UniProtKB/TrEMBL annotation:
Gene3D superfamilies: Alpha-1-antitrypsin, domain 1, Antithrombin, subunit I, domain 2, Serpins superfamily. GO terms for cellular component: extracellular space. Keywords: Glycoprotein, Protease inhibitor, Serine protease inhibitor, Signal. Pfam families: Serpin (PF00079). The gene is LOC101876561. GO terms for molecular function: serine-type endopeptidase inhibitor activity. Belongs to the serpin family. This is Uncharacterized protein. It comes from Melopsittacus undulatus. SMART domains: SERPIN.
Length: 420
């Protein structure tokens, strides 16, 4: 009988949370307003950029799986958080278990070695957490271990070096004390955003592995609170809700995808963060969900152009909490959840398996932002009214980091008045 442990994947996103990832091979063109890549560390950049196509493939494959699990509901998750936690787990996995994890993360092991993958994630974490950025983005990895479980020094050393892992001894035989220790840690690390993460903990647990991203960003051009007003949002043919709708008129990156019948608007945050807001035509959401791949984002990026728009976008807070074991199993990560698991790289003996994987993510979108410089504050408007784009029916929100080409968050907002 294998000893089981939990993996908990968390993400807290705050305020106008968005991190700007442009897809691989994005062309910035000559737009002076387009933030440039600030690759300060060339070696790190090369290492983590090797992961880009694989991480993007994983992100959109997982998106398709999660939609099947929770159809017609709000969805919000962090692909980079899930990938990072399982890459870290792969450090302690051996044989088929390790192969399944890495291939399940969309890596082709004939093209990239495990060592390169681990080095890439190490540099990804470092670059995402760069302190000179104008956005606050922290990736934190932690492991809570029962005292009787003695992890190998090599596993802890490698995990600390590559993933900045923090390790804690926890008495799981006293579930209430263990829950308090873990919840207090998570609440502190997410600045109070995530509370009471673990509940009803099994006293048989021997290890909890946690990975989360904390993000806080400001819009490059803020919305004025006095322009926010209640307007209707059409959830479906039968359901209409009232939402606080933010409003801003100006020049926005815009594209209409005729093949997928959707409108794309890109908003920047200060720093390297970017949000793609995607509004499908009525009845076209399912088609968009089923066909969305990294090449789609690339095409949008290549075709965006500046257009004067009257933009209406809801102010909302959503969170997602998912038990994702089943989804990962469908993607080929199977053995690690069974008695076939080989996690002997963690303890030296193959007596561990993962009992369940929990992923939590949250997003707040509001008007906050830093005004553009005074020289550009007074934009000259044409006398004719610009076309209005109103996000008043279900839409997607994709948040990227341009410096690392990372997909930080993927969200589907079906009803912005439902917070969880």
């Amino acid at each position: 009988m294998k000893t089981t442990f939990y993996i908990s994947l968390l993400l807290a996103g705050l305020h106008a949370v968005s991190h700007g990832q442009l897809p691989p091979n994005h062309h910035n063109g000559d737009d002076p307003n387009e933030p440039k890549h600030h690759m300060h560390h060339a070696g790190e950049a090369i290492a983590c950029l090797k992961l880009v196509p694989n991480n993007a493939d994983f992100a959109f494959q997982f998106f398709k799986e999660i939609i099947l699990e929770v159809p017609n509901k709000n969805i919000f998750f962090s692909p980079v958080s899930i990938s990072t936690a399982f890459a870290m787990l792969a450090l302690g996995a051996r044989s088929t278990t390790q192969t399944q994890i890495l291939e399940g993360l969309s890596f082709n092991l004939t093209e990239i070695q495990e060592k390169e993958i681990q080095e890439g994630f190490h540099n990804l974490i470092h670059m995402l957490s760069h302190p000179e950025s104008k956005v606050q983005l922290n990736m934190v990895n932690a492991i809570f271990l029962t005292e009787r479980l003695k992890p190998l020094k090599k596993f802890l050393d490698d995990a600390k070096a590559l993933y900045q892992l923090e390790a804690f001894t926890t008495d799981f035989n006293n579930p209430r004390e263990a829950e308090k220790q873990i919840n207090d840690y998570v609440e502190r690390k997410t600045h109070g955003k995530i509370t009471d993460l673990v509940k009803d903990m099994d006293p048989q647990t021997v290890m909890l592995l946690g990975s989360f991203v904390f993000f806080k960003g400001n819009w490059e051009k803020s919305f004025k609170p006095e322009h926010t007003e209640e307007r209707e949002f059409f959830v479906d043919a039968e359901t209409t809700v009232k939402v606080p709708m933010m409003h801003q008129t100006g020049r926005f990156d815009f594209y209409f995808d005729e093949d997928l019948s959707c409108t794309v608007v890109r908003l920047h945050y200060n720093g390297s963060a970017t949000a793609f807001l995607v509004l499908p035509a009525k009845g076209k959401m399912k088609q968009l969900e089923q066909t969305l791949v990294k090449e789609t984002i690339q095409e949008w990026s290549d075709h965006l152009f500046k257009r004067l728009l009257s933009l209406y976008f809801p102010k909302f807070s959503i969170s997602g909490s998912y038990e994702i074991t089943n989804m990962l199993s469908k993607m080929g990560i199977v053995d690690v959840f069974t008695d076939q698991a080989d996690l002997s790289g963690i303890t030296g003996t193959p007596d561990l398996k993962v009992s369940k994987v929990v992923h939590k993510a949250s997003l707040d979108v509001d008007e906050r932002g830093t005004e553009a410089a005074a020289a550009t504050a007074a934009e000259i408007m044409k006398m004719s009214l610009p076309p209005a784009i109103e996000f008043n029916r279900p839409f997607l929100m994709l948040i990227f980091d341009r410096d690392t080409n990372s997909t930080l968050f993927i969200g589907k907002i079906v009803n912005p008045t439902i917070t969880s």
